[in-house]
Amino acid sequence: MLRFFTSGESHGKGLIALIEGIPAGLPMAADFINLELRRRQGGYGRGGRMKIETDRAEIISGVRWGKTLGSPISLLIRNKDWENWQAAMSEDQEFDGSVPPVTRPRPGHADLPGALKYAHKDIRNILERSSARETAARVALGAVAKSLLQELGIRTGSYVTSVAAVEARITPVHKNEDHLARLFQKAEKSLLRCPDAKATELMKQAVDRASARGDTVGGTFTVFIAGAPAGLGSHVQWDRKLDGLYARALMSIQAIKAVSVGGGAELAGMKGSQVMDEIFYSGKDKSYFRNTNNMGGIEGGMTNGMPVILNASMKPIPTLKRPLRSVDISTRKAFAAAYERSDVCAVPAASVVAEAMSALVTAEALLEKTGGDSMAEVIRNYNAYRKQVQDF
Ligand SMILES: Cc1cc2nc3c(=O)[nH]c(=O)nc-3n(C[C@H](O)[C@H](O)[C@H](O)COP(=O)(O)O)c2cc1C
Fold first, then answer.
1. What is the pLDDT averaged over residues 93-98?
2. From CA 55, how far away is CA 344, in angstroms rounded?
3. Which of 2, 42, 47, 358 is most buried, by the most CB atoms less than 10 A from its CB?
């Protein structure tokens, strides 16, 4: 069983990421985790915070001499900004009241519901944890999951498909792993993680226009998982269905408002005959295959051997330069929300976070299938299962 948690406040000492259930003997390097953290920090339209932080993960436990031990792996990402926040975020009661409370909830944030739920009169006690700074810890954990998947030939990637009203022109060849890999490679070179160079330019302009007006933008992206065998997840119980697990994981990312699989919402308006991925058999390759992938690689809550395709929509960033109306919780008087240092667009970063969450869900489903406490055992069981599918 794979379990993982994050902890830490946005301006606290740092973030902690903890994962248990990774088998022993998996090569693990902080360098790869740091590379992934770097990818999350990029993208056009980010705010000042990204210039302060160059995230680095320290491996605190669970790894010895470059390989996992099978014990819980914990990672620490220090907040560089902490030195400026020592009094404001101190755990010491001596500092109580040394900085004024935040009493003005921002629309679109956890501020008001969180203050009401936890009975906090200082909204900082909510926003410090609800902030998307937490996603750095998820990306670090995702890097651990990706390391496992890579050992088994499973790759994850993502690319941005729209920012504001600008849509990328991408041929949706979701059945072809090489095509997906090429889209990913192009995305990695784009400031907006978009494989369409022309659209990237228009997206940049849309971000600039929004920024000049004191506004923000959202967008959409696709995550893929290529190389996974058929049969991860299960149809037998609602909470084992893999599409449901991916949807929960992606929806839990800050500002994600919709998630779909494969053709997603568009399938609803089409005919069954246009949509279903018909089944063929190749005697030469001794395998079943499809010519389309509208189901996004999942049927009945299980992978079907085609690439898994997940799409997500991110709302515009809720903190704007242009004031939004809200009500002060100390006076109950109306005010116009003040600006804080903030992103104008974080769609590229969100796509990297979604890759991480998808990798974690895939790794969990995979380990459920194979079992195994060491990588040798996992690989042995994995190969045996693949042969079973091949010989079926
Ligand atoms: C990578 C990433 C970066 C974000 N950056 C900001 C930001 O700079 N300012 C902001 O107001 N919201 C930002 N958000 C969105 C908020 O964290 C999010 O909207 C808020 O926590 C409320 O959660 P909800 O939108 O899921 O309801 C970001 C989200 C992500 C995924």
1. 90
2. 20
3. 358
Q: Could you write out the DSSP letters of every residue in 64-85?
A: ETTEE-SSPEEEEEE-GGGGGG
Place of tokens 């693949």: 386
CA 30 to centroid of ligand 1, rounded, Å? 26
Q: Could you give the number of structural domains in the chain?
A: 1
Pick from 10, 50, 131, 320 the residue to mutate for probing ligand 1's pocket: most ligand atoms within 8 Å of its CB: 131
* Ligand 1 atom 17, closest CA: 132
Could you tell me the distance, in angstroms and rounded to a whole number, from the CA of residue 100 to the centre of ligand 1? 23
* Alpha-carbon gap, residue 81 to 161, rounded angstroms: 33
Domain for residue 23, yes or no?
no
Q: Which residues line ligand 1 (CB under 6 A)?
A: 47, 108-110, 130-132, 135, 253-255, 315, 317-319, 342-343, 346, 349-350, 353
pLDDT digit string, tens, across residues 354-381: 999 999 999 999 999 999 999 999 999 9
Averaged over 282-308, what is the pLDDT?
A: 94
Range of the domain at 125: 101-391
Q: What's the whole-number mean pLDDT along residues 290-303?
A: 97
Residue 301: inside a domain: yes
- 347 C-alpha to ligand 1 centroid (Å): 10
CATH of the domain at 280: 3.60.150.10
d(CA 313, CA 322): 23
SS3 assignment, position 287 = strand
Residue nearest to atom 22 of ligand 1 (CA): 109
CA–centroid distance for 130 within its chain: 15
